[in-house]
Amino acid sequence: MEDESGSLPPISDFSAWYNDVLWRAEIMDVRYPVKGLYVWYPFGFGLRRHTYAILRNLLDVSGHEETLFPLLIPKTEFMKEAEHIKGFEEEVYWVTHGGLSELDVPLALRPTSETAMYPMFALWVRSHADLPLRVYQIVNTFRYETKHTRPLIRLREITSFKEAHTVHATWDEAAAQVEEAIGLYTQFYDDLCIPVLISRRPDWDKFPGADYTMAVDALMPDGRTLQVGTVHHLGDHFSLTFDIAYEDAAGERQLAYQTCYGISERCIAAVIGIHGDDRGLVLPPKVAPVQVVIIPIIMKKMAEEVRAAAESLKQELEGLGLRTRIDDRDLRPGAKYYHWEMRGVPLRIEVGPRDLTAGTVVAATRDGEKMSLDRTRVSDEVPAILDAFGVRLRERAETRLAERIVPASDLAAASAAIETGVAVVHWCGDEQCAEALEKETNGSVLGTGVRSTHIGGGEGNCIVCGRPGSTLTVIARTY
Amino acid sequence: MEDESGSLPPISDFSAWYNDVLWRAEIMDVRYPVKGLYVWYPFGFGLRRHTYAILRNLLDVSGHEETLFPLLIPKTEFMKEAEHIKGFEEEVYWVTHGGLSELDVPLALRPTSETAMYPMFALWVRSHADLPLRVYQIVNTFRYETKHTRPLIRLREITSFKEAHTVHATWDEAAAQVEEAIGLYTQFYDDLCIPVLISRRPDWDKFPGADYTMAVDALMPDGRTLQVGTVHHLGDHFSLTFDIAYEDAAGERQLAYQTCYGISERCIAAVIGIHGDDRGLVLPPKVAPVQVVIIPIIMKKMAEEVRAAAESLKQELEGLGLRTRIDDRDLRPGAKYYHWEMRGVPLRIEVGPRDLTAGTVVAATRDGEKMSLDRTRVSDEVPAILDAFGVRLRERAETRLAERIVPASDLAAASAAIETGVAVVHWCGDEQCAEALEKETNGSVLGTGVRSTHIGGGEGNCIVCGRPGSTLTVIARTY
């Protein structure tokens, strides 16, 4: 399914690198004949599978239950929440015909599932004993994007939207759930070795129908931030509209409070972009579809012994639960190295006649550490080598992020900073000042109350109007 | 989320039982406001998760790779294969609008993915070295059903369609893949403790665009068969249309041959229907969301010790990989037994003060075997108890199937036989005879060449025209 002709552009030319690595590493095929729709290659799907298994597990062990709601939402339900409609009306796909006849009520392809789920929540929630309700689903959602589309990042079919929805007795309990969700997402991205910035989106950029929106942003190599998760406190907007109420301990009817939070396949885009290098993908061990590739070095002598040694090594590593593959294709070793480096495999182990004689194997990590291992020690050492590799990936990403977060005290400095990363400025919170700031710098206000070890606290003068007592805000060019 | 008022109809009133058990056991919520669309409750989704994990694993280990193609198929592609269009044109949902504007090309919601996948296969397959190609995906598909809809059985959104698609160098290799798929499906249903009938569908009932269709049918308690899997040899119909060809070893361009095979959430309907009883679900151990439920019997004395004993038992069983839950709700034990029997939990373990004193626990299987186990032997015995329970489920289902397969030598006998099951008749293969047979008996010809240990071989006289040398065929009332 691949063509290894030509070569990968350097990652410094990020947009070209990204488009190219997707097919060279067999993540997505972009040749599907509809704009904004893409095909997951099996290797890419393997990456998706392991990534979403982590997410699923985090949700399962923290009291969420997986469920599945219909894709099709009747227009009558979809149109119930006014702000929500306004936020989505230009982006919704409509099914108008079934077979050869027109439908009585058009059906929306869910852009997100509030209006599919909440009429059911109204039936499910009756008493305080039913709360909190925490469910999630991993589904395809749709947006009629008119902007430039890009695989995994801006799609018409978001194939892998994990959306969680919760219902609580009080506003404060919902706010606590928002914090828990932020914790889960931080843990998730930590497993992907990705440092993130958490901030509270400005009001004009919050989810349609939310009290407030917390966002998780990652910094891509081209200096633009990618929103890789959002957590919304919905207050009672939707519970009012959909009549989600419960009987409290005293027998009184009370309106419920809600949250919702989501992560899409942008998490995969972040893994690809943030860790990749000039030779292709570099995958965190926990999500790599192939964690260890074994390359038998076949010469004339001892060919059978080398093959057998590779097979026994594979079985030993699989016994440790490691996803291991032998590449025994009839190609020169260099071509195989190139192939698996492109696919980001964390560890390569070479087994040749000399190794057999010496009782060793050669191990090379994807970031260039090469070592000779005693064959009898492989099972002991490989897990630690993979762990250490993951730690290095995380540290490297953390360092790069820290380097590109730059405090700026005037607009020119802010403009310069967001050429390569994130500018930290003081902003008074006034929307007009934000407009001026965005216009002057050509960036966007990500949000306030930024949680990052790389950003301190402290008040200062608004970068636009100079008002003292303004708080720290991050701005960046965004995807 | 449940209401345990009223009681479950007896399974002899199957249609009422089925509708009721779906919500009482929290499998599906049927109150979603669009006909033919339903909501998976978390418990039902757990059953789906474990069932599809088996299916996924069977495909993975037999050389299939998981992938994911878009839901939306442009009309231009969809309309390319003439027979295929004819088979689906009355059932396809069409997306005609994106946001506020009309689309240039309407988009079909996939009823199945041939026309989404095969244009890509044409790009993926170039040389004989690319073959065989074997991929699968588990996705939602759509049919605008005008008939009576029914959860898990006849849906407008099939939420869980596992479709596999393969490409081969020759017709024979594709035929061999058909056999392999039948083997996988038989294994899958064996894991669900469900005996199936495999047969070759008559030509008028094959998949639109197939050379032939093999079908997997299960027999439901009301005597109707449920098609729970199909395997299609597509010949070169689609490879001609979509230009899927390869260069053979001699450098010649050759047309490829294809197969596809699918299983939907009907597999869950079969699990529910075939094993259920008057008290609710009876779930095979491999797919039960809760395999063991522990009921602490809380009295005044030793309440804390009982709670601690239940917790330590749970941890021990989870250590064996068993999905275990403690029901410590403030309800009387009888209400808890009822609750978990309805949900089909294979094994219930009761721990009370008397058990603590005696060093035992009471174990009761869902099919009514009750025993006292030495507490120290629980880890040794529970896995074997679950295995034996699964064996009994399978045997019970096998016996019931065998009893309801009845040879019939005249139309009256065939009519009578299909009131409760499947009639085995001789049929000459002539379509007119089949029409008469179906009309007279009010049944359908399932197919020929039936593979079942309950059906022998041997030729005979056609049940309609009397022609000698006719082969065995099964007929039944179908879902």
TrEMBL record, chains A, B:
It is an enzyme of class 6 (ligase). GO terms for cellular component: aminoacyl-tRNA synthetase multienzyme complex; cytoplasm. Its EC number is 6.1.1.15. Its main location: cytoplasm. GO terms for biological process: prolyl-tRNA aminoacylation. It is found in: Cytoplasm. SMART domains: ProRS-C_1 (SM00946). It catalyses: tRNA(Pro) + L-proline + ATP = L-prolyl-tRNA(Pro) + AMP + diphosphate. It comes from the Archaea. Residues 36-284 form the Aminoacyl-transfer RNA synthetases class-II family profile domain. Catalyzes the attachment of proline to tRNA(Pro) in a two-step reaction: proline is first activated by ATP to form Pro-AMP and then transferred to the acceptor end of tRNA(Pro). Homodimer. NCBIfam families: proS_fam_I. This is Proline--tRNA ligase. It comes from Methanofollis fontis. The gene is proS.
